[in-house]
Amino acid sequence: MSLSTYWLMPPRWSSCPQEEISSILNQAFGSADDTQDRTPDSDQHPAEGGVIALAVGPIDADYDFTPTLLVLASPIPASTTPAQALADSARSMSDQVPGFRMLEDCAWPAQPESSHLRTGIYIQGKVPITACQWAWIHSDGGNDFLLTATATMTTPTFGDLNEDVLAIIMSLEVRNA
Hints:
Layout: E1 3-6, E2 14-15, H1 18-29, H2 32-35, E3 50-56, E4 68-75, H3 82-96, E5 101-107, E6 116-124, E7 127-139, E8 144-154, H4 158-171, E9 173-176
Antiparallel strand pairs: 1-9, 2-3, 3-4, 4-8, 5-6, 6-7, 7-8
């Protein structure tokens, strides 16, 4: 089983080719050893999960920060219910990002279907970041995956970029390939 994505990009955004995602994330987060849990290898088995899509937006020159929208697929263990996986993923977001403050976690009434929206803020160095994450369950008939689409941008650019992010999210489709 493998997953593929389809989405429409507003003019200021671009979708990164699948084969370049690993190197882009390595540049952003450090060496492959530091990010192996977050970056896909070209020979990674899809059932193990990983990053399945990445989009980048216009650079915030004030902070030298590039906004991103990253789609991650995480397999749900047989011992975990889909509802539990969604709840655990909200806690993980708060636990894994130092200083992250969850502002809301609510049902999302539009695409992707049956998703939850989480929003929050944190400081990365001296850069104020706003994060929006949509989380939902995807099944390939034999396996369930927790899918998350996480947008990060500087808090000052949120007002300018949120419509772009919403347009991308509303067009996002994850398919069994």
